[in-house]
ABC-2 type transport system permease protein (Kibdelosporangium philippinense), 68 residues
Amino acid sequence: MAGDSQEVWLSWPMPLLRYTDAGRHLWNDLTGWSGDPHLSPFHLTLLGIGWLLTLGLLAALLFRRTAS
């Protein structure tokens, strides 16, 4: 598969990029985060931004429905 050869190419110069899900989180490796990568500040920030965007969109749709 094409994805497999790309993963081999990416993991060759950086042995920290393993074939596990945790090994593909480059930002955590660069910052030294040793815990679960899905509970890192980077992922939690992305989750918070997603929730804020969702709530803002819902508020805009609700405002549009009540305004017309």
